[in-house]
Amino acid sequence: MSGPETVDRVLMTAAVVFVVVAVALLFVRISRGPSMLDRAIGLDVFAAVVIAGLGAKSAFARDSFYFPIMLVLAFLGFTGSVGIARFIAVRDKPLAHRRPAGGKGEK
């Protein structure tokens, strides 16, 4: 093996180790919580770690096959995060500021 190939192999191995450690720590965060928001953030970061893992695999194989998959996962992670944030924002509003079920508030 030449010098650059050795460096590539070491860096790819380090990337895989970091991704595995990140996934293990994320499973701890998702299982422990303590709140729904912590779990939602953990799942969002999990999507980012999966994308990073696919990027490392793509770099190791020198193949661009996974780029569209990474793009779709990024889009799904973003829309999921926005949806959860909107749900939590509505859920955590004080009752005085919520509109009645009829649709229009009193003035």
From TrEMBL:
Record-linked InterPro entries: MrpF/PhaF-like (IPR007208)
Keyword check for Ribonucleoprotein: no
Main location: membrane
Membrane topology type: Multi-pass membrane protein
Protein localization: Cell membrane
Residue intervals passing through the bilayer: 6-28, 40-60, 66-89
Key words of the record: Cell membrane, Membrane, Transmembrane, Transmembrane helix, Transport
Keyword Transmembrane helix: yes
Family according to the record: Belongs to the CPA3 antiporters (TC 2.A.63) subunit F family.
Name of the protein described by the UniProt record: Monovalent cation/H+ antiporter complex subunit F
